[in-house]
Amino acid sequence: MEHSAMVAKGKGKKNIFLVLWLALIALILVGIIMLLPPGEKHESIQTVMKDSVLHEHNKMTFFGLVVNPGIISAYMVTAILLAGAALIRIFAIPKFKTVPGKFQSIIEMLVDFFSGMARNNSHHEPHFVGAYIFSAGVYIFFSTIFELFGVQWITTAGHSMSLPAPISDINAAIAMGLMSYVVILGGGIVFGGVKGALGVLKDFSLPISMSFRLFGALLSGLLVTELVYYSISLSFALPIVVAVLFTLLHAAIQAYVLTTLVSIFYGEAVEPKPKKEKTKRVKKAKEK
Amino acid sequence: MPLNIDFLQILLHMLNFVILAGGLTFLLFKPVNRFLEQRREQFAQTEKKNLEDAEENEKLRAEYEQKLKDADTEIAEKKKSAEKECADVSAQYIKEAREKAARIILKAENEAEERKGHILESAQAEIGELVVSATQKLLSNTASPERDSALYDEFIRLAGNSAEREGRE
């Protein structure tokens, strides 16, 4: 007993020493990084930030078309996600068990989260809107995380730049907002008839608010990250922590916000409208 | 366009998302959702079956308890009937024994009465003999052959009667 206690005590001391040693090295490295002379900068901070928002300068070619970097990012994310989904479909799903393992639990939780959200908010065709919000949620989350990897691509000007999150491009945000609106409008027309469609059409600010909310939220994260990248000469240590935290946070929040909004608006659009007789009766009752 | 909005790029983003949504739906969402639905259904069926089994078990338990109760009642009834039968049989035995005892007593009384009669008869014979003997002694002086012959006849008759009675016994 005494021997084992002594061994444990010795291990504890070793661990403390190891942690202190690593912390010291980290501190010295951060000091060195902070004191390094800034690297060569081709653009001013104003230009970098403006380009992050508008993508006017750094263009890329996509099958002969000159496009914003967001398009490249978007198609790359789609390719990665579809490849991942195909691998899961081929290798993991056929081996799914009644009592799930860790990986199966994650996949099930992800699908059931969006499916449950659709079921709770809509009583008509929740599978359709469930599939839509699942895809939108996965796309927003992973495409936002995508900027963390700093995948390099060559611009039309010949510079190398890291690909941004697709939705930091306003065109992607507008596309998402418009498609969400179309889905809600489609649900309103199919299940609510002309009245349902009119109800959705009446709220024409919906696609604009959705697009700009998504764009603004994603852009704020991107701007903060750009600012940190610009200010610190080497893109590691502090930028990594800041970028990861901001990116993960707003990726999760934006995925949740957009999918929740779509499922709620869809649920409202497809909800059966109360008949006019009822309102007349209520009016009559009030008059009495 | 302001803010670098480009309709072609919006369409390109839409195309990208439509491809992604279709792919994710058919590769991931539908199969996983189908699996979840099947499992939910399987659990619901298992739960339903368990409930049915529990109901069946409860029913069987009630039936078993009822059978036990019936068996107890039957046992009690049979016990009661056996006790009654036993009491009847014992009463019958007692009655028969009493009758038998009464018959034995009656027989014994008859025999005793009969023996008493025999004793009385033999006593009478002996008394007669004594009387004859005494008379003979008294009348020895007045004896004659006829008288003697009469006395002998009397004696033989008495003796003969006595021997016959003893042989019968």
Architecture blueprint of SSEs:
The complex is a heterodimer of chains A (288) and B (169).
Chain A: H1 2-35, H2 45-54, E1 60-62, E2 65-67, H3 69-92, H4 102-121, H5 126-146, E3 152-154, E4 160-162, H6 170-202, H7 205-231, H8 238-270, H9 276-287
Antiparallel strand pairs in A: 1-2, 3-4
Helix pairs in contact in A: 2-7, 3-5, 4-5, 4-8, 5-8, 6-7, 6-8, 7-8
Chain B: H1 7-138, H2 145-168
Report what the structure shows.
The complex is a heterodimer of chains A (288) and B (169). The radius of gyration of chain A is 26 Å and the shape is globular. Chain A has 288 residues and is mainly alpha-helical. Chain A has helices spanning 2-35, 45-54, 69-92, 102-121, 126-146, 170-202, 205-231, 238-270, 276-287, and strands at residues 60-62, 65-67, 152-154, 160-162. The relative contact order of chain A is 0.12. Chain A has a two-stranded antiparallel sheet. Helix content of chain A is 74%, strand content 4%. The model of chain A has no long low-confidence stretch (mean pLDDT 79). Chain A has one domain. Chain B has one domain. Chain B starts with 6 loop residues before the first helix and ends with a helix. In chain B, α1 (7-138) packs antiparallel against α2. Chain B is built from two helices and no strands. Chain B is rod-shaped and about 200 Å long. The longest helix of chain B is centred in the middle third of the chain and has 132 residues, at 7-138. With 169 residues, chain B is an all-alpha fold. The chains are: A mainly alpha (288), B mainly alpha (169). At the A-B interface, α3, α4, α5 and α6 of A face α1 of B.
